[in-house]
Amino acid sequence: MIRAAPRALAPARWCAIGLGCSIPVSVALDNLLLVVLVAAWLANGRLAEKAKSMASHPVGVAALGFAAVIALGMLWSPIPLPQLRNAMADVVRFILLAVLLTLFADPKTQQRARVAFLATSAGVLALSFVLWSGIAESIPGLKGRPDYPVVFKYHITHNVLMAAAALLFALEAMKARMVQARLALWALALLAALNILLLIPGRTGQLALFAVSIYLLLSRLRWRGLGIAALGLALVASTAWFLPRTALHERAARAWEEASAWKPGTAQAQDSSVGLRLEFYRNTVGMIAERPLLGAGTGAFRAAYERKVAESGMVVTDHPHNAFLLIGAELGVVGLLALFALLIVQWRSAAAITDPRDRLAARGLVVIFIAAGLVSSTFNDHAEGLFFAWASALLFAAARTTDSS
Predict the structure, then answer these.
(1) C-alpha angle with apex 184: 182 to 190, nearest 5 degrees?
(2) Residue 81: which of 96, 95, 66, 91 has the closest Cα?
(3) Based on CB atoms within 10 Å of each CB, which residue in 118, 321, 355, 364 is the most buried?
(4) Which among 7, 85, 102, 121 has a CA at the least distance from the CA of 47?
């Protein structure tokens, strides 16, 4: 752990805290805070000590390893270096994870960042319900409307972040000593879940919420939790059936219709979300089979996919709507092993977190991103990818097993 003078890293630490507010709200503010954070972190000096601190944390090492694989993938990528800006951003985000671990090693910074994210999430939640209620048809600066009450982000990002907020609200409620605070936090957790299930369209967030809810129930109640999870899923399904105008019912019905209409090897209608995803998955698996070891190269998915579906009439896509297939197509087995290594190291490192609720939060984050990654490119999209790096550092900073001071 870096034992810098209290004020030495203050600007970088406040930027790390500020990201908890900006990630759910503004890409421009994210980028500004990142520039200031990195500049302040480097200007503080003591780089050898910081490198030693990052190397002392298994999650930091795994994140840097994955960043290195993404960077190396540029060597065999056919895409010119100037066009690899998004790939370079991926490299930076996983390096940032290791950098943030050194900042969140400070308990006060860690707690303030958690409060910043939850306070912002509560504000986003309130605005979403205001939009949904129809009190205002639209609010300047917000993306939503009553029938689509997102706030600052579109539905996939909104729901992934809200699933993480629901998890943290619930675990903070378990920690709260005052009855009023406990009730308020449980209410926020429930409202966040209802927001995902009933208000905002998008199966990604719903899948993430279901997965992390089942994980929490199993962790807390073991086999009883499995029964409660089954009962809860039945209740949700019944609610969706009897409330046909909810986002959950509409998306589930449409998903079933589109999946039933899918025919392998046949171009799908462009308005068939599930049909297109199944088409993307099938073609991407074929791409991985053609270049299994190293893949097509960093950032080369679209070009490789375009060649794969040439003259087939199928839609060309920038990503297959599956984070693991995307990594497999671009970086092959090597890239997948590096990503799986990071996730496994995170899961195992959580055992070193002494507070059981913080341990649940850390592993719950991994569950959310694995579930969401099955149906979207969560590690590569700006907000979700940055949140994964930020939240991983925040929640796993306490899992440091060695001290490099």
Answers:
(1) 100
(2) 91
(3) 364
(4) 102
User: Which 8-state DSSP code applies to residue 381?
Assistant: S
Indicate the average pLDDT of the chain: 86
- Residue 249 has what pLDDT? 57
Q: Give DSSP secondary structure letters for 240-283.
A: HHH-TTSHHHHHHHHHHHHHHH--TTSPPPTT-HHHHHHHHHHH
Rounded-to-integer distance, Cα 123 and Cα 129, Å: 10
Take residue 340 and report the two structure tokens written for it. 């799986």
What would the two tokens of residue 277 be? Answer: 């995803």
6: confidence class by pLDDT, cuts 50, 70, 90: very low
Would you say 335 and 328 are in contact if contact means Cβ atoms under 8 Å apart?
A: yes
For residues 360 and 219, the answer to whether their CB atoms sit within 8 Å is yes
Lookup result for tokens 């780089």: 47
Instruction: For residue 257, give the amino acid letter.
Output: E
Quote the tokens at residue 60: 């930091």
- The domain segmentation of the chain, as residue ranges, is 117-399
The model's pTM: 0.89
Contact between 99 and 53 under an 8 Å Cβ cutoff? The reply is no
| Cα separation, 98 vs 95, whole angstroms | 5
Site of tokens 């600066």: 141
Residues 338 and 319: their CA atoms lie apart, in Å, by 19
Across 40-49, 241-250, 357-366, least confident range = 241-250
Residue 202 confidence class, pLDDT cut points 50, 70, 90? confident
Confirm if 24 and 384 have CB atoms less than 8 A apart: no
Contact 305, 317 (CB under 8 A): yes
- In the 3-class helix/strand/coil scheme, how is 137-195 assigned residue by residue? CCCCCCCCECCECCCCCCHHHHHHHHHHHHHHHHHHHHHCCCHHHHHHHHHHHHHHHHH
